[in-house]
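Lab notebook page, bench 4
Experiment: in silico fold of construct C2
Operator: M.H.
Input chain length: 200 residues
Purpose: comparison with the prior construct
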Amino acid sequence: MKNVTGLVLAGGRGRRVGGADKGWLIYEGRPLIVSVVERFAPQVGPLLISANRNLERYAAFGEVVGDDVADVSGERFAGPLIGALSGLRRARTDWVAIVPCDAPHLPTDLVPRLLRAALSNDVMAACASVHGHLQPVFALVKTSCADGLARSIANGERAMHRWLKALEAAAVDFDDPQAFTNINKPIGNGNRETHAADGP
């Protein structure tokens, strides 16, 4: 899998968790980013972290890339497509695998299965699916798609699922919905195990 760069999307505003940096929320006793990297890093070669704050802390896990907004939106925290673009532009491999920072149970065979589907279908992208529902932030994309994505963003596109559909991404079915669960609830909203991390 050395020809696949991993990209963890951690550059959001964290609106659903009171503006906290989601990668550093504590879940089951440790930061979400730790659980995600532990499951994701063995599946890829180089690892990138898309982030807009706590850059030094994220650098402990991989190369940090900020939102590349100069020629596409002019706004930081502009959504996952901006993070995806930054990763595609920074990667030096043929493929980039994308996951969010708030999915601590992501499949340990995610990237190999996405890559097999993309190669066997001769397409530019593949995306996880559960019971027929796409999971658009769990995807694999050809690095050469960067310029096309920049044009789409400049034209106002902000939705991962529409971009992947335009790429005719192969859908890869997974049986376990829990594997794609996002941790979106802060303390006081039904998730007592999730709170902001104070330390690195």
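Observations: Confidence is low (pLDDT under 50) at residues 186-200. The two ends are 29 Å apart (CA to CA).
Next step: discuss at group meeting.
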